[in-house]
Amino acid sequence: MYNTGKVMFFIIVLIIFFTIPVWLNWGRLEAVPQPELPKEEKKCIESKEYMRAYHMKLLDDWRKKAIRENQRIYEASDNEKYTISLQRTCMKCHNNKEKFCDRCHNFVITHPDCWGCHIAPEVAQKWQ
Amino acid sequence: MAIKRRSFLKLTGLTLLGSTLSTIIGNLLTRGEVKAKGYTQSPEALVGKRWVMVIDVKKCKEGRSTCGAKCIEACHTLHNVPLISDIKKEIKWIWEDTFEHAFPEQTEKYLEELFHGTPFLLLCNHCDNPPCVRVCPTKATFKNEEGIVMMDFHRCIGCRFCMAACPFGARSFNWFDPRPYIKKVNPEYPTRMKGVVEKCLFCYERLAQGKLPVCVEACPEKALIFGDLADENSEVNKILRERVALRRKAELGTKPSVFYLMS
Amino acid sequence: MLEKALVGSKKYWIWVLFLLSIIFIGFLCYLYQFKVGLGITGMSRDVSWGFYIANFTFLVGVAASAVMVVLPYYWHDYKEFGRITILGEFLAVAAVTMCILFVFVDLGQPMRVLNVLRFLSPRSIMFYDVIVLSVYLLLNLLCGWTVLHAEYKGTKYPSWLKPFIYLAIIWAPSIHIVTAFLYQGLPGRHYWLTAIMAPKFLASAFSSGPALIVIVALLLKKVANFDPGKKAMETLSKIVIYAFILFVLFYLFEIFTAFYSGIHTHQVSFKYLFVGMEKHAEWAPFMWAAVILAVIAILFLAIPALRKNETTLALGCIAVFFSCWLEKGAGLIVGGYTPTPFETITPYRPTLPEIGITLGVWATGFLIMTILYKIALEVKTSHELIVKYEGVLYKK
Fold first, then answer.
1. What ipTM, to 2 d.p.?
2. Residue A92 sits in which domain range?
3. I want to staple C53 with a disulfide (CB 3.0 to 4.6 A). Which of A32, B164, B211, C49 is the partner?
4. How far is CA B164 from the centre of its chain?
5. Model-level pTM?
6. B positions 75-134 inside 8 Å of C (CB)
7. CATH architecture of B43-261
8. Which residues of chain A approach chain B closer than 8 Å at the C-beta?
9. Buried/exposed C158-179: b ≥16 CB within 10 Å, e otherwise
10. Mean pLDDT calculated for residue range C377-391
11. How many domains does chain C have?
């Protein structure tokens, strides 16, 4: 390879540049997201660990079942029944999208397009 | 260590391929992670094999001067259908039009005179043999087992092939973000976003709750009749046996499920 | 070989910069469309496809037409086409790329484009169009590039390539037939619902594509000292005119069927396009321009003396190209959507951003074509220089 020294130098500079946030936040844990949990309710549809890890799978399954297979009732693993609906079920308990969904999503930088169509509770309130 | 351009490109290609594959495998692995005991229909749901709508044109005309087209308003407010004044970009699920526009191939002087001033309610025909479903490249529009031509807004890529295929002009496209055009929002139902196609869904979400379509419920004249054509004893079957009904562009063989009682 | 595209005359760079600036403008327009929605175009609820899909359809034809130079050369061993087959193959690459871009810019939800692969739906013609177009792109890249690379090294192309070359030849018509099927199987669009759609598409493709190759070859002769060969140009121009006459005939057959049968629904689109209806005649000037261009094209190309003259040949081919483009670009889509399902008329007029995006896509295609042609010509001429150089050496 030509100019090995120079190329290596720039590669190292680049690596350092792109990892600046890691070095600046080394050992600090402030940024961990704190979603605001519902106060009146005790449990979610499934266990907390499960919801945290797999809520996107659940939602994907929900909409497939509700829209494509006409099955609108979800029977959870504890035999509790829920009507399948993002706006009328999830968001009735988690009644603030910004303080719940977005807090995590901003942290992991994922922006699902759901809210382009589905109406978050706080948006609905402001609309009227 | 010398890398040639060719081998570098090959390596890059392999890396891309590898990461795509691993994403796919990862997705497949977590696929079974849904914990449900099961999915069911609600016990009060209305179930049918082939939902149809019969529109009594005469009753509709008689009540039209006083009803204020409640069916249209009820549908459009329930489903957050935007009100866009530019007819080129408008969105509608159910609307009224003249006889000549509803049945252009039937135009004939006396029929036109006979039906002059008669409103014809137009909506998606929920064809039994729907061309829009045939052409959709993502199965975003499909016919469900109750005979309703559905839209899965989550899949629609906005190619508008279905609009080209629909001989009834029943489909609308979101040319812009529809939200600014919705004055009063129904927080129970989603809106749509720019770039997807939409149309009437025969209120399948209300059928699941045991309710009739909202236009049927809203009509004070009871001019809209909804029922299951596959059920021999249903009201729609009885009516269609006794009275003359037309379907729009029946000659195209799409087998519409909306009937117009002409007598 | 790519390095050959990186060195060039001042003229070459000015041309590349020119294309790049148009691409940039198109890209800005696309960003605007991406943000606001397809509402910035002239399309409407009634005319829901427009300029993008029209250009897509036309370019599928251009891509398919490469077969008209590839087939005689490989299949019938017609040596005269040896110098221009590569032009055909690379033209196909550029044209298919433009097709894909045109479909992409036409999508309402471009971020979801991969849904087409995630939810395969073999009942949709679009499914087959995606397959057919992408395979055709790969085949042409593979064949063109490998043959050129062999030439670069001074060898014959490897024998494993033969099956791919034949496959590409058989594949070519399929892309345009499938594209015609997009239209001709839709109930209620009477202008499209005709079995002659596919043959008509092929005929117009096999005239407009080779016409473009003739124009480009003549241009390259001027600007790049590339000699396509007199015989090759003659044969190619014959292909252009025969295919074009077939195309015009097919169009007239349709008019005959519509008007002699007297079936109203088959006539309205033609009436709207050529004379206008209900005070709407937006597209009549364009359709008549297509007719006049067709007459000019037939005069210039069917008369042997005019066809052999380079100036009239070029003019005739330009007339063919634009006549076909107007028929597919203006007529096909607008005619299919007019009248609407309610027998009303909603006029369609492309907007400025829409035209900007369209030009941007065309410029992208021309840029790809320029780069590929540059490489191809450099390889071909560098080869000759060595021979001459050796010749000079031998003399000494």
1. 0.87
2. 43-111
3. C49
4. 15
5. 0.90
6. 87-91, 97, 100-102, 104-105, 107, 131, 133-134
7. 2-Layer Sandwich (3.30)
8. 1, 46, 50, 53-54, 57-58, 61, 63, 65, 67-77, 79, 83-84, 86-88, 113, 116-119, 121, 124, 127-128
9. eeebeebbeebbebbbbbbbbb
10. 64
11. 1
